[in-house]
C-alpha cells in the first residue's frame, strides 16, 4: 500500500540530483510570473464569449487589456476596455484594474475606478481578494459587472445609481449615448 | 476507458438470468475492466495559494532552493497549505482563504 511516508522518502531520494541545476535557472523568474504562466493559459481556455484579452507585450503576462462586449442588458453593443496590471506581490495582492472606456455605470466611475469586491485588497468579509482566486475569476467578475453583478444598491458612481432609480428609460438613453461616443 | 463499459455489466446480468430461464442467450460479457481511483489521505492535496502539491515544496521555496524547509500547515478548519504560503497571507487577512473561517493553526509538519 502507498503511504505518505513512503512517497516522502522517495521524493527525498530523487530531489538531491535535480534541485541545484533546475532552481538556479528558474531563480530569476518571479513567483508572480510562474503563477501567471498557468493562469493566463487557463484564462484563455475559458474566456467568456463576450471577452477578448490582448497582451501588448507577450513577455509581460502581468500587463494586459480586456475588452468586454456585453450581449445583453443596458450596455449591449458597447465595447469596454479594461487595463489589468498584476503587481509583483501577486497573488498575495489582487490585480489592479482600470476601465479605459468612459462609461455611465453605478459600479465604475467616469475616471475608470471599479468597485468589484474580489478586487478589494482588504475586506472584512470573504468576498474580497484571496490568493485562491485567479485571473479567470477577475475576468469573469469584470464581465459580470454588465449583467449579474451590476449593482445599483451599493454604487461607486452614486449619480448613475440615483439616475437609474429616478428614471430607468433616461438612464438607458444616457448609457447608450456614452456607448455611441466612447465605447465603439 | 470509454462510456460503454458500465452498461454491459448490467446487461450481462440480465442475460444470465434469461439464459437460465429460456436458454436464449442474446450476448455474453467477455471482458470488463475495473477502474479504481486513489488520493492522498489529506483533504486538499494542492496548496490553493501557490498551486503546488502540499507534499512538494512551494513555489517560493523551489525558487530559492529551500525545499527541505518547506513544511505543511493545517488549520482547525482542516484546510492545509504550505506554511510559507499561509504565513504570508495571514499577515494580510487572518482567515482561511478557502472557507473564510478565522485561521487557527492545528498542526505544522510534513
UniProtKB/TrEMBL annotation, chain A:
GO terms for molecular function: ATP binding; NEDD8 conjugating enzyme activity. Residues 1-29 are annotated as: Disordered. Gene3D superfamilies: Ubiquitin Conjugating Enzyme. It catalyses: [E1 NEDD8-activating enzyme]-S-[NEDD8 protein]-yl-L-cysteine + [E2 NEDD8-conjugating enzyme]-L-cysteine = [E1 NEDD8-activating enzyme]-L-cysteine + [E2 NEDD8-conjugating enzyme]-S-[NEDD8-protein]-yl-L-cysteine. Keywords: ATP-binding, Nucleotide-binding, Transferase, Ubl conjugation pathway. The keyword Oxidoreductase does not apply. Its EC number is 2.3.2.34. Residues 31-184 form the UBC core domain. It is an enzyme of class 2 (transferase). GO terms for biological process: protein neddylation. It comes from the Eukaryota. Pathway: Protein modification; protein neddylation. The active site is at residue 115. PROSITE patterns: UBC_1 (PS00183), UBC_2 (PS50127). Belongs to the ubiquitin-conjugating enzyme family. This is E2 NEDD8-conjugating enzyme.
From TrEMBL, chain B:
Pathway: Protein modification; protein neddylation; Protein modification; protein ubiquitination. It is found in: Cytoplasm; Nucleus. GO terms for biological process: intracellular signal transduction; proteasome-mediated ubiquitin-dependent protein catabolic process. GO terms for cellular component: Cul5-RING ubiquitin ligase complex; cytosol; nucleus. It is an enzyme of class 2 (transferase). Its EC number is 2.3.2.27, 2.3.2.32. This is RING-box protein 2. It comes from Pogonophryne albipinna.
Amino acid at each position: 500500500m502507498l503511504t505518505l511516508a513512503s512517497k516522502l522518502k522517495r521524493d527525498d531520494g530523487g530531489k538531491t540530483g535535480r534541485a541545484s541545476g533546475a532552481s538556479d535557472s528558474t531563480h530569476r523568474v518571479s513567483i508572480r510570473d510562474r503563477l501567471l504562466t498557468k493562469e493566463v493559459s487557463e484564462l484563455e481556455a475559458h474566456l467568456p464569449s463576450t471577452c477578448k484579452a490582448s497582451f501588448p507585450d507577450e513577455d509581460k503576462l502581468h500587463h494586459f487589456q480586456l475588452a468586454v462586449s456585453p450581449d445583453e442588458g443596458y450596455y449591449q453593443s458597447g465595447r469596454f476596455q479594461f487595463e489589468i496590471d498584476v503587481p509583483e506581490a501577486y497573488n498575495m495582492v489582487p490585480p489592479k484594474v482600470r476601465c479605459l472606456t468612459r462609461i455611465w455605470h453605478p459600479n465604475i466611475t467616469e475616471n475608470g475606478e471599479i468597485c468589484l469586491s474580489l478586487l478589494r485588497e482588504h475586506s472584512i468579509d470573504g468576498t474580497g481578494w484571496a490568493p485562491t482566486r485567479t485571473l479567470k475569476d477577475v475576468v469573469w467578475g469584470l464581465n459580470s459587472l454588465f449583467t449579474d453583478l451590476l449593482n445599483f444598491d451599493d454604487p461607486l458612481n452614486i449619480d448613475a445609481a440615483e439616475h437609474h432609480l429616478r428614471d430607468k428609460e433616461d438612464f438607458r438613453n444616457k448609457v447608450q449615448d456614452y456607448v455611441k461616443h466612447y465605447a465603439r | 476507458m470509454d462510456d460503454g463499459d458500465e452498461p454491459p455489466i448490467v446487461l450481462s446480468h440480465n442475460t444470465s438470468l434469461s439464459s437460465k430461464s429460456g436458454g436464449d442467450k442474446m450476448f455474453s460479457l467477455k471482458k470488463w475492466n475495473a477502474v479504481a481511483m486513489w488520493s492522498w489521505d489529506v483533504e486538499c492535496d494542492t496548496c490553493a495559494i501557490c498551486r503546488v502539491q502540499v507534499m512538494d515544496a512551494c513555489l517560493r521555496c523551489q525558487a530559492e532552493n529551500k525545499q527541505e524547509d518547506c513544511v505543511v500547515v493545517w488549520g482547525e478548519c482542516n484546510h492545509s497549505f504550505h506554511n510559507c504560503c499561509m504565513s504570508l497571507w495571514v499577515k494580510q487577512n487572518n482567515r482561511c482563504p478557502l472557507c473564510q473561517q478565522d485561521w487557527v493553526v492545528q498542526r505544522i509538519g510534513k
